[in-house]
Design a protein that fits this description.
Number of strands: 3
Helix content: 55-70%
Strand content: 5-15%
Mean pLDDT: 79
Largest sheet: 3 strands, mixed
Number of helices: 8
Shape: extended
Order of helices and strands: HEHEHHHHHEH
Number of domains: 3
Strand order of the largest sheet: 1-2-3
Radius of gyration: 24 Å
Amino acid sequence: MELFAEEWGFRNPGREAPLIEDQLGSHKNVKTIQAALLKGVFLFSLAADSSRINQPLDEVPFASYKKWAVGRGEQATFDSMVTGTLTRDSLLGAAFTTERRAFTPANIRGSFRRCALWPFDPVTMTCRCREAKGMLAHRCGLREEATAAASEVIRASTERTAAAAGRLSTGKTTVCRNFLHSSVDLLAQHAKILASEAARVADRAPKEA
């Protein structure tokens, strides 16, 4: 945050900055939000599962790497046992070979194109985001039906987890999920929690005395 604010102030003196972030917990920390506001940076959180599908390296390159790494790692371990060589060296060699095979220029360029980042295609990118959220206008294919069904299951699981967390823990500052919101919304909740805790302590003090 310090580095971003310094760079933004140098490039855009006197201008406030809206900063889009993901759902990482440290980004929604009250101290982080307050420090950002003091520097003129307004934080906005993306809805869950709406950013990863537009990360090109997570599409084919990393998917291919994970697919091949397991098999090559097992083969490397077996080879090291048979030949009496160090398993560490065999695994490093397998990882290097897998990386060279997965992160080819063709795979990287294709991922950028399919993710609609380069060349930029706003229509395709919007459709991918809607598909990831299960917000499909027309479900005419097997892939669309499977995506929608999986989204419903994931959404229901997320709601159950959130409900259970709400019953089991108190004093946690949160905001509603699955939509674009400002992290400033957390500050009001945080103030209410502090006021409630102070009132509880003040009410308990005479009883303990």
